[in-house]
Amino acid sequence: MLDLTYHMPTNIIYGTGCIQKNASLFPAFGKKCLIVTGKNSAKASGALDDVLQALALGQIESIIFDEVEQNPLLSTCKRAGDLARENKVDFIIGIGGGSPLDATKAISIFAKYDLRAEEAYNQDYSKDHVPFFLVGTTAGTGSEVTPYAVITVDRDGRKRSLKGLFAEACFCDYRYTLSLNYAFSVSTALDALSHCIEGYFCNRADTMSDLFAVQGIQLILDVFTNLSPDQTFTEKQRQKLYAASIYGGLVITKTGTSFCHSMGYFLTEDHHVPHGIACAVYLPDYLRRGFDFETKKADLLTYEIDYTLSEICNIIENMTDYTPVALSEAEREELCERWTADNKFGSAPGDFTPADAMELVDRIFPKT
Ligand code: NAP
Ligand code: FE
């Protein structure tokens, strides 16, 4: 039976040359814009040049803020937002991977309101922020299409998500991902795969998110099973990975993420493991639970994509270049407390509890 509710207010503009072809979209949003990016990605990918050209056509003035770090800090977002507000910008364009794109979403709030940093979490700003556009340069987070901004709060170094922040439009041109190195490309692809698999087997999935998830999983597995030994991707493979990342974003816009993400955050926050790898560490276990508890969906998935459970797990394990960190007893206890307090595991297949999470931790990570 059709099980379907879907809300996607972002105009997804997809394809090569999509910024140049749609430059006429910007003038309706005003005369002054803040461009938000990291140190390198906007220039290396060629996206910054394309955006500047499009803005010049519309005689739109721009200021560039290029200080967004990986796993962006709330204080950075506030600083950029203050700059935007003081300069009375009409809209914002974020260029980069998930870090600058998520930062742009948070900045859109500070650009409108003079808040103390953590006040951004106090109320719903989903309809109350400076309008923003997003240009992706990694094939992973799908942040272009999601309403989430994953931001690191300075006070405790923990990641907390702002929600409800959809872009006016996102520009999706896989060519901007060509300059991303092999290790980041694999890690970001694992993030997209996690979005698709977590979404597929979680209890918030519906007909539409399942369609996107199966497409995304198929595309990524096809790339991972046909890798060239010299650690490069063909253009066709880059296209597939980028499409899969957008599918993954559409999936989690509906379903949210599940325990691979919740349990992966501490690996990034405390041990600097790249986000995609940090989630993929748990992905084979999540998948096995999906196959145990959602047997009908599991059968459908294997039929659609033509890989067995053990084949998918092997592919993920082969691509997850990771040596487990050793956890101290104090760190283990802190995780237990945090996950028991948050309990964000409810959407996972089966009745996954914080105790199950700790059992998984004890199986994966050696003790110091
Ligand atoms: P990222 O942190 O945005 O970028 C990783 C690195 O790759 C940075 O050094 C970046 O350079 C570089 N880079 C990006 N694109 C490049 C390109 N085309 N050419 C050369 N270098 C490039 O990585 P990400 O994995 O895309 O984003 C991770 C963040 O997204 C995490 O904070 C994660 O929690 C979040 N996330 C968000 C969502 C969501 O729905 N919003 C979902 C999953 C994850 P720069 O220093 O220049 O940026
Ligand atoms: Fe993610």
Indicate the low-confidence ranges by residue numbers: none
Q: What value does the Rg take, in angstroms? A: 20 Å
Apparent shape: globular
User: Helix count, per DSSP?
Assistant: 15
Q: Average pLDDT, to the nearest integer? A: 96
Strand content: 5-15%
- What is the spatial order of strands in the main beta sheet? 1-8-5-4-2-3
How are helices and strands ordered from N to C?
A: EHEHHEHEHEEEEHHHHHHHHHH
Describe it.
The protein has 368 residues and is an alpha/beta fold. The strands form two sheets. Strands 1-8-5-4-2-3 form a six-stranded parallel β-sheet, with helices on both faces. Strand 6 and strand 7 form a beta hairpin. It binds NADP nicotinamide-adenine-dinucleotide phosphate (NAP) and fe (iii) ion (FE). The site of fe (iii) ion has 6 residues, from helix 6 and helix 10.
